[in-house]
Structure formats: structure tokens, C-alpha cells
Design goal:
By secondary structure, the chain is of the alpha+beta class. The protein folds into three domains: 55 residues, no CATH class; 113 residues, 2-Layer Sandwich (Uridine Diphospho-n-acetylenolpyruvylglucosamine Reductase, domain 3); 225 residues, Alpha-Beta Plaits, CATH 3.30.70. Helices cover 29% and strands 23% of the residues. It has 14 helices and 20 strands. Strand 8 and strand 9 form a beta hairpin. Helix 9 packs antiparallel against helix 10. The chain is globular and about 60 Å long. The C terminus is likely disordered.
Length: 446
Amino acid sequence: MTSPDFDSWGRVQRRNRAVAHPSDFRRGVAGGFLPFGNGRSYGDSCHNDQGRLFAMRPGAAISAFDPETGVLTADAGVLLSEILALVMPHGFFLEVTPGTAQVTLGGAIANDVHGKNHHRRGTFGGSVVCFTLLGSDGGNRLCSPESNTDLFEATIGGMGLTGIIEQASIRLMRVPSANVRQTAVRFSDIDGYFDAIDAIDAKHEYSVAWIDQLARGGNLGRGVLMAGDHADDGGAAKPPSAPRLAVPFSPPVNMLNRLTLKAFNALYYGRAPSQPVTGIVPWSSYFHPLDAITGWNRLYGPRGLFQHQSVYPADRARETTIALIECAQKHGAASFLTVLKRFGETRSPGLMSFPRPGFTLTLDFANSGDRTLRMLDALDEIVIAAGGALNPYKDQRMSPAMFEASFPQWREMEAMRDPALVSDFWRRTAMVLNQELQPQRHAASA
């Protein structure tokens, strides 16, 4: 059967995709498979257009939660929002939460998601206690730091390619309130951010900066820094609710263009406080503000969007951030969501985890065809020159060479990949690299 709903969040490649049942995987039905969560990956790491997808959401449920230890066990298809709804009344919160709660538990593990507190707690993979993994050989393996360790590490950040995560147990953290005591302040240029961030991160659990990507000259890199901590006096937090707004269809043109974003950026920056202002904000608006709008990605128009997220070393962060912003400006591109934050020293257990010490800049661009692709290639060159890497979980166009430069350990991942599982991303990066290595191996053995 096919479904029109199995698209990535970027919506660049839209088509019906064949769907299978996990029982086919167990029976060894021919053809490549891939588990599919809730479609919040931006690129083609959740696409398998030459094979079939396993829908992980239907029937997924939380099976256990211990309010004494803070350990929760759930099926891979359970959403993080469903986990939060259960645990917040007991005084718990996710140790690491990404920018949306509409991510499945399995997807959070497979993409080793990070949040606004990487400098304190690392990635989501650090919260994983164990999981059960179904292989195409019919084996059902319990994976943890002590059991099937290699498979455990390859699965965290492994993009769903090592097996089907059936159920997982994660550790939650106790908080006085899910709501956040936020300190917000604007900075007039990129130096304002980097001059402040060391002290901010030393003091606060969370920090993130919005950047006005269109600002130029002496205001280049201006933005708003939002630091936060779970509030001792935050009170009872409202459970996750249905979105208040919706974009029911894709407009015929990109609504988030230079004209509209210039006006929005000026308004947002202008309304931000020039001196630090502290107050309590709802957890949902601090962590997941765009979850309040169903289908906000449709605003980029019928051709979809590309997200470019990179990480680069701290000692080159100022000049690299400036270079990336200026590169996008030179190409005439406008980014709606431009986010800058620090990655800390905590190493993920995941073999292929994207975060590493330094700073990460995220840029979103409407798809304008070849012009956008040329700009993204130019951004890649800046990242590689700085000794950085590109996020594969949000990509749908990086070259095999860029992937190898970002993840030289891809060969270890390929060795751990279940032979029945593959994605469009893996086909166009790792499998191309693998084919290029074959002549070299034959020549060496001759």
C-alpha cells in the first residue's frame, strides 16, 4: 500500500511512499526497509523511496513509569509530547528535549537529538537506559551500555539503520516546575553574543540565541539571547495541548521571503529588552514555540525548505558564524529560523552523533532550486574549512565528500547497519562512498 503522509518536514521531495508492516521484516520479505516515526526529520534520512517504510506510530504506548527513579519505558512510536503529558504532573521532565515535542521516542534516539542544554547534559542518547532492537535475522536484542554495547552505540544517532527499535527505557530528570525562569536580552552584533555566552552558560541550564540573519554592517549577527532554568516558583505546568493555529495548505509562493522576514526581524529584535529581563514563561513556549502552529513548514511554499545546521570549533566560532551569515546574504537568501547555541564537552554514547564541542548555527531557507543548492554548497565549504561538520539528520543534499569529512566513522556504521535497512540519505552518501572504495580495494589486492 502507499501513503501520501510519509514526507519529511522539509517537503522538498513529495510523493506517495510504500508502507510495510514489521512482520514483513521478520519474514525477510525482499526489498529495503526503513522505520518511520512522525516525519520531523528535515531531509531524506526518513525517506526510502526505492523500498518501504514501517509506520511506528500506530498502537504505540507507554508501558511503564516509575516516579521514584524517573525511568520510563515506552514503544518507539510514542511522541515526546505524550511522555511529557504523563511525567510532568509527577515533577519530571526530559533531560534533553529538541525544538519540537512532536518527535517519537525512537526518532529521538535514532537522531540523537539535542536541546538548549547540551553544554550541561549532552544529547538525548545520554538519557537512554536500554532498548530492544529487532533485526532482519529475527533476533530481538536488548541493547544497553553493558549489553550489545557496539549495537547500542551504533543505534544512537544511527538514523534507524541498525534495526527496528521496538521499545526503549529512558531516564528523566526531576524539576521543581516544567515552566522556565527565562532571562532575555538582545545583543547588537555577533560580538555581543560571544562576549556574553561563557558567563550565561556557566550560570544557566539552558541557553539559545535567535539571530537576525538579514542584519548587516555594524549590526551583523544581532539577536536575542534567551537563558533559562526550571523555575522553583514556576507553579503547575499546563500539559501539552493541541496547536492553537494551523497552516492548512501550502501557499503558491514562499511567505517567508526577504521582504516579510526583514519586517519580522526588525519587529522581533525591537521588542526584545535592551537590558536583561527575567520572568517565568511556559515550558511549551520556551522549548517548543512552533508546536503551537500546525503545518508551519507549509509557509515556505510548494517547493519546501532546506535546513543547514553545522557545528564548528569554539576557537573559530566568531569568524565562522560571520562567514556563514555573510555567505547567505551574498546569495540573496533569507533564513526564518536562525539559531545559535553552544555544544559542550559531554560526549554522546552514539557512534554517529552530530554534536561535538563548539558552536552550532542553524539556518532555514526556502527551496529556490539551483540557486539555493549553490549557496548550501558554499556554506559547506566554510564549515569544512573551519574543521566543522554538517548535521545529517536535517540534510537532503550534502555530497558524499561532505558526509565523509563530517563523519569519518561512517565505515564503522556501515558495518553495523542491518542489511535489510536503508534510507535515501544513506544511498546517496555512504553507499556512494562504499562504491568508490571498491576499485581501490581491488587494486590493492591485485
